[in-house]
Amino acid sequence: MSFDVGIIGGGVIGCATALSLAQSGARVLLVEKHRIGRESSWAGGGILYPLLPWDYSEAVTRLTERSLELFPAWASQLTHSSGIDPEFQQCGMLVLAPFSADTAQAWCDAHATQMSVTSGNSVISALEQDNEALWLPGVNQVRNPRLLKALHRSLNALGVKIVQENEITAWETHENVVSGIKTSHGVLRAENYIVTAGAWSKSLLSKHALDLDIRPVRGQMLLFKAEPGLLQNIILKNGIYLIPRLDGHILVGSTLEDAGFNKATTEEARSMLYDQAIGILPLLKNASLVLHWSGLRPGSPDNIPTIDRHPVLKNLYINSGHFRYGVTMSPASAEIMTNMILGRHQSMDITPYRWPVSAK
Ligand SMILES: Cc1cc2nc3c(=O)[nH]c(=O)nc-3n(C[C@H](O)[C@H](O)[C@H](O)COP(=O)(O)OP(=O)(O)OC[C@H]3O[C@@H](n4cnc5c(N)ncnc54)[C@H](O)[C@@H]3O)c2cc1C
Q1: Residues 6+ apart with CB under 8 A from 331
Q2: Ligand 1, closest atom to CA 13?
Q3: Which residue, judged by its Cα, is nearest atom 37 of ligand 1?
Q4: Ligand 1 pocket residues where CB is under 6 Å
Q5: How far apart (Å, rounded) are the C-alpha atoms in residues 282 and 128?
Q6: Which residue has the least CA distance to atom 53 on ligand 1?
Q7: What per-residue confidence (pLDDT) applies to 184?
Q8: Backbone angles phi, psi at 356, to 5 degrees
Q9: Which of 252, 255, 324, 330 to mutate to test the pocket of ligand 1 (most atoms within 8 A of CB)?
Q10: Is 239 left (phi over 0), alpha (psi -120 to 50) or beta?
Q11: Residue 259 has pLDDT above 80, yes or no
């Protein structure tokens, strides 16, 4: 069988891109070195929002705003096509001090975002302290492992060829095109290739990465099991967040560590996250701590992903470097990539996502 597109890496970005292209009629091959959706995309929290959006550039805002327009219909379509509910839900986020209410208000006014400055306890009565807080009622979340399972099943239903446990190890090039990808199980071929290998994208591209700056940034997370309803909204304080799931699970994250490709968890991070979480919500002491894990984010400068065609190799593309917000940005990033491959009009300015090449 021949393929229009070969996608390398089966995280949320690779799966969303494969789905979008297959829905547009392309014959898609998706190659994953381990199992679909078990790396950063599984490890993440699923908050569909840049934690403090006023800390980021318009390039991040545009991509997240477009994704958030697409998400409700995307999630319900995935539920229908897969029978798996990714638990997309609007749960709101309460930001506890420190923050600049003026900066937040100015950003929210400029981006038509609902926000109020309120007493923390008026939203969540179980907080340790009742201080002034920012309440963002429109913030959504999704349950990552379910989202990835729903994507996987939907891709199967659409006839996407998925090859797992198969690592891309090298590129076969001829003049200015990629003619094949060497894998642990032989050479695979397609008309076009898209790298969606997350934190591994730069090392996989090797010399073809040019000035691409994507590096692994480790994030550790804890999972508690509490009574459903103990917490209903996301809480963010000083970079630490608590995310309640519908069944009573509460995620606490996360660290930002430069540890290379080492995915080990550490006792230091476990106790820091635990202490911070109990400090915010003392009732968590009664919940059981059920899991501690880590994932490698595809870190990028200013959290701006690269979504572009290679400057030299005409049939090679990348959709990677989504750093802290790859789940949030997935449908919009897939849309941009699909428009690019199919030569369609882009609905937004995509220049910030260009493949970086420094002038020599
Ligand atoms: C602790 C933590 C919390 C987070 N919280 C959030 C959040 O709340 N909201 C949000 O939007 N984002 C969050 N993120 C970020 C988000 O998870 C990532 O941005 C996103 O998962 C990146 O997706 P990806 O598909 O690019 O990478 P990945 O999910 O890592 O997928 C890349 C895939 O490529 C495969 N691969 C690599 N090399 C090869 C090769 N040579 N051959 C074949 N396959 C290969 C890998 O095995 C992997 O499956 C969080 C991340 C972490 C770690």
Answers
A1: 16, 20, 66, 67, 70, 71, 74
A2: 25
A3: 197
A4: 8-14, 31-34, 39-41, 43-47, 167-168, 196-200, 204, 219, 221, 253-254, 295, 297-298, 320, 322-328
A5: 6
A6: 295
A7: 83
A8: -70, 125
A9: 324
A10: left
A11: yes
Instruction: Specify the DSSP class assigned to residue 286.
Output: G
Q: Does residue 85 carry a pLDDT above 90?
A: yes
Minimal-distance CA residue to ligand 1 atom 50? 44
Task: Report the C-alpha gap between 177 and 335 in whole angstroms.
Answer: 24
Q: Taking the complete model, does pTM exceed 0.90, yes or no? A: yes
- Average pLDDT over the chain, rounded to whole? 97
State which amino acid sits at residue 86: P
Q: What are phi and psi of 171, to 5 degrees?
A: -110, 140
Q: What is the mean pLDDT of residues 28-44?
A: 98
Return d(Cα 260, Cα 294) in angstroms, integer: 13
Ligand 1 atom having least distance to the Cα of 326: 19
Question: What is 5-77+145-214+301-353's CATH superfamily?
Answer: FAD/NAD(P)-binding domain (3.50.50.60)
The predicted pLDDT at position 360 comes to 62
- 20, 123 in Cβ contact below 8 A? no
In the numeric block, the tokens 């996987």 are attached to 152
Among 352, 356, 58, residue whose Cα is nearest residue 213 = 356
> For the CA atoms of 118, 119, 124, 130, what is the dihedral angle to 10 degrees?
160
- What digits encode the pLDDT tens for the residues 181-217? 999 889 999 999 999 999 999 999 999 999 999 999 9
Determine the CATH number of domain 90-139+216-299: 3.30.9.10
**Structure tokens of 215?**
């590096």
Domain definitions of the chain by residue range: 5-77+145-214+301-353, 90-139+216-299
3-state SS class at 143? coil
The two beta strands, 186-188 and 177-183, are: antiparallel
Inter-CA distances, 201 with 40, 64, 160, 180, 279, Å: 13, 21, 22, 17, 38
Q: Which amino acid is at 90?
A: Q
Distance in Å, CA 41 to ligand 1 centroid:
4
Helix (H, G, I), strand (E, B) or coil at 239: coil
